[in-house]
Amino acid sequence: MKIKWMVYFILSLVVTACSVQATGTTGEAFELYLLEDSQAHGSDIINTPLNDITLAETPLLTTADLVSYEHSTHTLQLTDGGFQKVTDLLEEGFQVAGIPFVIVSRGERIYAGAFWTMLSSQSFDGVVIMDPVFLTESNTIQITLGYPGSGFFTGTDPRADARLMDALEGAGVLK
Questions:
Q1: Quick check: 66 and 112 in contact, CB under 8 A?
Q2: Do residues 119 and 90 touch, judged by C-beta distance below 8 A?
Q3: pLDDT value for 91
Q4: Residue 96: pLDDT band by 50, 70, 90 thresholds?
Q5: Which of 75, 78, 70, 37 is nearest to 54 (CA)?
Q6: Are strands 108-116 and 124-130 parallel, antiparallel or unpaired?
Q7: 3-class secondary structure for 106-140?
Q8: How far, in Å, CA of 30 to CA of 71, rounded?
Q9: Which terminal residue of the chain, N or C, has fewer Cβ atoms less than 10 Å from its own Cβ?
């Protein structure tokens, strides 16, 4: 009888592990994933359904990297370690066509966007995180709309998605 329960337990662990691997998420309140294809550009994600985007195995940022998330401006105050992850990524050689990412909350893909640099001459009709070297506050990144400005964004603003805001509030980082 004990062996039967042990088999059920092991099978449930395997199923759980497979489901985490298949979705590429861990169930955190906030996760920012890059794409599995490191050569992808920001424009590659604009018209791609979120579930068709293949995420990297692990997130670049998680809730543990957040000090706070300012709801009104979508400004993230990051820990030193979280900020270092972003600056390391961008120092590796910024793509003028953007580095795409997907925001995930509690295992659900919320929206896609791209890291962008002010050195790019390409416009972008999506959610943008500007290279933080151009921000004045240390350890912050801001999630904005469109590049080079919000006039280049069309569609519905996904940043204040209730699922994400509720998860951030539950995690104690929403301002």
A1: no
A2: no
A3: 84
A4: confident
A5: 37
A6: parallel
A7: CCEEEEEEEEECCCCCCCEEEEEEECHHHCCCCCE
A8: 13
A9: N
Bridge partners of 41, per DSSP, are none
In whole angstroms, give the CA distance from residue 108 to residue 164. Answer: 9
The secondary structure of residue 141, as a DSSP letter, is: E
pLDDT in tens, 29-41: 999 999 999 888 9
Side chain identity, residue 20: V
- Altogether, the residues listed in the chain come to a count of 175
Q: What's the pTM? A: 0.83
Q: How far apart are CA 101 and CA 129, in angstroms?
A: 10
Residues 112-129: b if buried by 16+ CB within 10 A, e if exposed: bbbbbbeebeeebbbbbb
Q: How far apart are CA 113 and CA 103, in angstroms?
A: 8
Other C-beta atoms within 10 Å of 130: how many?
A: 18
124 and 147 in contact (C-beta within 8 Å)? yes
pLDDT digits (tens, 9 = 90+) for 58-91: 999 999 999 999 999 999 999 999 999 999 998 8
Cα separation, 175 vs 75, whole angstroms:
10
Residue type, position 29, single letter: A
